[in-house]
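Journal club prep — side note

Before the paper discussion, L.F. wants everyone to see what a predicted structure for a comparable chain looks like in token form. Sequence:
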Amino acid sequence: MAQVVLKRTLKTLAILIFILLALAVGLILYFNSKPGQKRLSDFVTNFLSERLQTPVTGNISYGFPDWVNIENLLIRDQSLDTLLSAKRAYIDVDMLAYLDNNLKINKLELEGSLLNIYKRDSVFNYEYALIAFSSKGPKDTTAIPVKYALETLLAKNLRVKYSDKKANQELEAVFGDLNTGFSKIELHKNQFFLKNTSVKNVFLTANFGKSESKPSKSNGSSVFPDIQIKEFSSENFNWDLAFGSSKTKGSKFNLAVVLDKIDLPKSEVSVNSFAVNGNRITILDTKSPKSVVGQINFQDLNLSDLVFKASKIKYN
């Protein structure tokens, strides 16, 4: 009698396991089909829209279990301005690392993307998103913080905009090609360690005028993050910058830098080697006195076909 009961129990368990496996396989096959991916895409965008309380649109597809591809992504901020958009975003995630409390992205590819950040009434337009996904309960001081990693970042036609009208600051950068990654990301320590980085076809414009707001009193701590990078190179770097009365323009610059140390909080930079060549560079300070014939005025320069190399440079 006992053997009969045992056989029936094992048979029932086997049937249940088979049904669960069949359901799991069926779900995987369904969500890998076009109707399934369309339904999942609608679910994710609707969830994000409800959580953020702002419009989120995009066509999402994925490959089980570790990559996501998003086309025509658009996230608007609370003023219905574009916060983030991308013609295509591909994300390769290490799911096994996530089980160990690590958010590790093996590769992030962006095409035709825009990141639009601005500050209005002392609040950045992205802060609502951080609040929407922050924990509502009391902070668990015993919890292990999540570790972040972004191994490779590849971007084509990336456009970044920043604006703070009260501080009279405007910046726009366009990167034809960007190839970088992070060896270390620690948000709670404000540390970002970049891998060797290269950019091509860069156009940078910025205007940093006199701030309308009064500068805040220093509390002894730096507002700069801890950013580390060893090698940086650029091809066809162009800029048009204004810092109050000082202006500078440059066109078709190629740059290769190998750094020993960079410490933004302490304003210290140590360069091992530096090589640059460019088509033209101008530097002008409208408030500086006019140049005297026969003397070099570094506040009124107009140079072409520039070639410069240096090594062992320190700034502090």
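L.F.'s comment for the group: The CA atoms of residues 284 and 300 lie 5 Å apart. Keep this in mind when we get to the figures.
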